[in-house]
Design a protein that fits this description.
single chain; about 220 residues; alpha/beta; Rossmann fold; Arc Repressor Mutant, subunit A; five-stranded parallel sheet; 8 helices
Length: about 220
Amino acid sequence: MKLLIADDDPQLVRALRITLAAHGYDVVAAPDGAAAIQLAAQEHPDIVLLDLGMPQLDGVQVIHALRGWTTVPIIVVSGRTGSADKVDALDAGADDYVTKPFQIDELLARLRALSRRAGAGAGEATVAFGDVVVDLAAKSVARAGAHVHLTPTEWRMLEHLVRHPGALVTRQELLRELWGTEQATDTGYLRLYMSQLRKKLEADPSAPVHLLTEQGRGYRLVL
C-alpha cells in the first residue's frame, strides 16, 4: 500500500518513512502543499498523511484540491489541537485527524481502519430509502432522480448510518467516526448535521420517517 506523507518536518518524515516501510508501506513524501498535490496526481497513493501547517498551500487548501478529483482517504497529522482546526479539516474532506505528538501504534491502527473502510466501499450496491438513492461506491446521493449536494461531514454521517441500516448508532460512535474521538462531549454538531440531512433527504424534515433520533442514545436509519 502506498502512502503519501505531506509534512515540512524532515525529521518526522524520515522517522515515519522508516517505521511505515518496516510495516510494509511504500512511502512517498512532499515537503509542502503544492508538491503534495503534484505527487498525489503522479503517484496515486492509497492514503494521504497530511500536516495542516505547510508552506505554499496549507493542509486545508490541499484537502480541497484533492477532493476536487479524488476520494483517497486523508489522515490529518497535526500539532493543532483546537476543535475549530479539526472541524475545518474534516469539513474540507479529511477522513481522520491525529494530533501530534502521537504514538505510532495509534497511527498504524488509524491506517488499518481506513484501509478496511476503503476496501469495504469497493463494489458496494446502492441503498435506497423513500425517494433517496445512496451510491456508496460513487459517494453520491440522489433524491427523486436529482443529485443532492452533501458536505463531506454530512456524507460521512449518512454513510455510517447507511452501512448500519436499522441499527442504533450511538452518539459516541458517530463522534468517533466524524471527529476521530469518542471523548468529545458536545453533541450539538451531531444534531446540526442530522437536521441538515433531514432537510435534504426527508419529505417532512419535522416528522422524519427514515433518519430517526433515539432520544439520549443516538440515531437510526430506517429503510
